[in-house]
Design goal:
Helix content: 25-40%
Largest sheet: 7 strands, mixed
CATH topology: Rossmann fold
Number of helices: 9
Oligomer: single chain
Radius of gyration: 17 Å
Number of domains: 1
Number of strands: 7
CATH class: Alpha Beta
Distance between the termini: 44 Å
Strand order of the largest sheet: 2-1-3-4-6-5-7
Shape: globular
Strand content: 15-25%
CATH architecture: 3-Layer(aba) Sandwich
Order of helices and strands: HEEHEHHEHHEHEHHE
Length: about 240
């Protein structure tokens, strides 16, 4: 019988804690597959801060370091400077990266730190109860925007990838999604390319992944995938935002 599936060696064989329908597990697999294909597992160091992915260090079969909320880019930059021959990545959600960690990610990108960030954007705070995040869409209902997000009171959703793409130190920025098979394949290619850029020493790289949060969105997993496609992608268009030549 032909083998059609094999767990990546860069993922530890244990159950994950994520809610049903959450796409963190898919992205974990894509990161692990890229590590395996590039044969970098033994020299990779990941940084996981506070958020739903706080236990990522339980799942990746490489060296992992936990960071305070929002501080993963600063921690990763320090690790990379001390160990320049290692591959260093952060795995961060939108509440972590775009809110309390906004300064860290902006200045890491501006300095051209040779690290890779996998940025999970599900437009909400997942771990702490479904509060409004910097990426929450206009009129989207959350625990702290029960009447929907309004620009006059909460401001506009931040397009992180477009913002970081304006910085000189950013070498590769792309936004992808994991709402169907075609886009999952594209997401894998983007993550691998981000690691390849780091291996070539080109500068800061980031892959933004549009993701779902069925629990806090109050939807079934299938409904959440459709909602992402219909609502998030129009505001957060997919594609490469910057690619240094």
């Amino acid at each position: 019988m032909a083998k059609v599936f094999e767990r990546p060696k860069s993922l530890i064989d244990i159950p994950m804690h994520y809610c049903p329908g959450c796409t963190h597990g898919i992205v974990h697999r894509l990161v692990a597959e890229a590590m395996d294909e590039l044969n970098i597992r033994e020299k990779t160091i990941g940084v996981a801060p506070v958020g739903c992915a706080v236990f990522a260090y339980d799942y990746f079969n490489c060296d992992m370091q936990e960071a305070a909320h929002g501080r993963a880019p600063a921690v990763a930059a320090g690790i990379k400077r001390v160990h320049p021959d290692n591959v260093v990545f952060t795995y961060q959600g939108d509440g972590d990266l775009a809110s309390i960690g906004a300064a860290e990610i902006v200045h890491a990108a501006n300095r051209g730190e040779k690290i890779t960030t996998v940025f999970i954007n599900n437009a909400i705070y997942g771990m702490t109860g479904g509060q409004m995040a910097p990426t929450t869409l206009l009129d989207q209902v959350t625990a702290t925007s029960p009447y929907g997000r309004k620009p006059e009171t909460e401001g506009y959703p931040i397009r992180v990838s477009e913002m970081l793409a304006t910085l000189e130190g950013a070498a590769y920025i792309e936004r992808v999604s994991v709402h169907d098979i075609k886009h999952i394949v594209r997401a894998k290619k983007a993550i691998r390319k981000a690691f390849e850029y780091q291996l070539e020493g080109r500068g800061f790289t980031l892959v933004e992944v549009l993701s779902t949060c069925p629990t806090n969105w109050g939807m079934t997993p299938a409904e959440s995938l459709k909602w992402l496609q219909d609502n998030m992608i129009p505001y957060y268009p997919l594609g490469v935002k910057k690619e240094a030549k």
